[in-house]
Amino acid sequence: MTDDSLRRIAEALERLAPPPRPAPDFAAADAYVWHTGPDRLDPVPEVARVALGLLVGIDRVRDILLANTLQFARGHAANNALLWGARGMGKSSLVKAVHGAVLAEGLRLRLIEMSRDDLASVGRLLNMMRAAPDERFILFCDDLSFSHDDAQYKALKAVLDGGIEGRPANVLFYATSNRRHLMPRDMIENERASAINPGEAVEEKVSLSDRFGLWLGFHPCAQDDYLAMVRGYCDAGGIEIDEAQLRAEAIEWQATRGARSGRVAWQFYCDLAGRMGRAV
């Protein structure tokens, strides 16, 4: 085989499995997104977030998560957090808003977003963060859940428990999920029905959520909270509208959607702002 053939083979292999990029200069941005193929952290110039004060109806979980995050950013002990519950109630918005509030306190904290599909690569990401001991990281996975025959949850244990090497002291893991135990009930029931030792099989699956020190539940909001969310968005956006008209239109909007949540309130506000010729 000629040298030219070997060179072309080497180039083809490098295209198929490119080498990982070096760790970024973490002073360049406050947030990054993790990608694989090749492994890299892409900076996020501006995080899409809402102000913490606009998240209405979740005061208790807001205060708990903010206190936990401030402890961590200040170098104190803190817990991994699982934000679970009703869809559209501000779970991921709260994580991003808390990160912004911590930055506003003058503390350094990097937010790293990771897709659940990339959990198998989490060990490589942890090594990259371990190599930057002067930084503090929140590793964030949005809409985390597992289905039948999904072994990705085993990779997550490396983040929560760290194995023999231990989770880096400068990393916390925050996840959001619609499910308290991160997997559907029928999957748990199937384990009970088909396993040789049903109890052990179920424990293996549900024990993952037990590894989060904080469980923060989000529940469907009442109408008064929904209307307060709408009012808050209008006040923040400088939209002036008759209170009775706003109430009637907001209630009609949520009725057509068949749900009340922070997401529905924001969607109504976007529609209202658009009709008034405003940008959001």
Describe this structure in words.
With 280 residues, the protein is of the alpha/beta class. It folds into 2 domains: 26-218, P-loop containing nucleotide triphosphate hydrolases (Rossmann fold, 3-Layer(aba) Sandwich), CATH 3.40.50; 223-275. Helices cover 46% and strands 12% of the residues. It is built from 10 helices and 7 strands. It has helices spanning 3-16, 59-73, 91-104, 122-130, 152-160, 185-194, 198-210, 223-237, 243-257, 262-275; strands spanning 31-35, 40-43, 81-85, 110-113, 137-141, 171-177, 214-218. A 7-stranded mixed sheet has the order 2-1-4-5-6-3-7. Helix 8 packs across helix 9. The N and C termini lie far apart (62 Å).
Q: State the CATH topology of the largest domain.
A: Rossmann fold
Structural class: alpha/beta
CATH class of the largest domain: Alpha Beta
The number of domains is 2
The percentage helix is 40-55%
Specify the CATH homologous superfamily of the largest domain.
P-loop containing nucleotide triphosphate hydrolases
Major β-sheet profile: 7 strands, mixed
Task: Give unreliable regions as ranges.
Answer: none
